[in-house]
Design goal:
- The structure is a single chain.
- The protein is of the alpha+beta class and 122 residues long.
- It is 46% helix and 13% strand.
- The longest helix has 19 residues.
């Protein structure tokens, strides 16, 4: 998929986030990156030959207190190439992008992988 179209699909997924949650999106940057870096993989506990679709780097909202200010925004990376490689067609790719965006935003809101699995968002 052309990069501009991929980015538009990510933006569309973000527009679908309900208002109570969308109000917090100014506190996180969403960046489309081609592939995860070695540092991203290591931070996620993955081996160099593994990959991932997205990665949240920051302090979840649930762990912040009144003294949390004057810090750079959290970052969510969405990795284009791994998503494209694993999806059979554009329809599947668009669905997986949406799932990935929601999954990483859930981490921003303090929801861990175990709870995401319980909710069927994994």
């Amino acid at each position: 998929m052309e990069r501009a179209r991929f980015i538009e699909v990510v933006r569309r997924a973000l527009r679908d986030i309900p208002p109570p949650f969308a109000d917090h999106l100014r506190k996180v940057d969403i960046v489309v990156t081609l592939r995860p870096s070695g540092a991203d993989l290591a931070d996620a506990g993955l081996a160099p030959d593994e990959s991932m679709y997205g990665f949240y780097r920051g302090i979840p909202l649930t762990e912040r207190d009144g003294g949390y200010n004057m810090v750079a925004p959290d970052i969510i990376h969405i990795y284009q190439e791994p998503l494209e490689e694993d999806c059979a067609d554009d329809e599947e790719l668009m669905q997986e992008i949406r799932v990935t965006v929601v999954h990483e935003l859930a981490h921003f809101f303090g929801i861990d992988d175990d709870r995401l699995e319980e909710l069927g968002i994994d």
